[in-house]
Design a protein that fits this description.
5-stranded mixed sheet, 44% helix, 6 helices
Length: 114
């Protein structure tokens, strides 16, 4: 089961992802990300601290936004990936295409360009 919680902060939107992002729940992940882009947020952070598992379908959701992130100059930062999930991102080279940080504090530094 996957839970997506979206929170509007001062200058960014935070999307917390909890549970397992697999083939059946990746649609929910896509809807959560899509709503942030449809609302034209230029700063988006994804909290994956409680993301237990991600399948190729879940990874595909993130991959599908890479071009849009680049074209819209959106600052899109993912943080809190577990070691095993981070390893999967690395195997696919997503660690080179997306901004991955360890903590929310690091993500906010990236967001604010400090």
């Amino acid at each position: 089961m996957l839970e997506i919680v979206q929170t509007n902060e001062n200058n960014y939107i935070s999307i917390a992802v909890t549970g397992d992002a697999d083939a059946s729940s990746s649609i929910k992940l896509d809807k959560g990300l899509r709503s942030a882009f449809d609302e034209s947020h230029s700063n988006i952070i994804i909290d994956c601290t409680n993301l237990n598992y991600i399948s190729s379908a879940g990874l595909g959701v993130f991959m599908s936004y890479i071009e849009e992130i680049n074209q819209t100059n959106t600052t899109f930062v993912i943080y809190g990936l577990s070691e095993k999930v981070l390893k999967v991102f690395g195997i696919l080279g997503l660690d080179q295409l997306l901004i991955l940080k360890n903590t929310k504090e690091e993500a906010l530094v990236e967001l604010n360009g400090l």
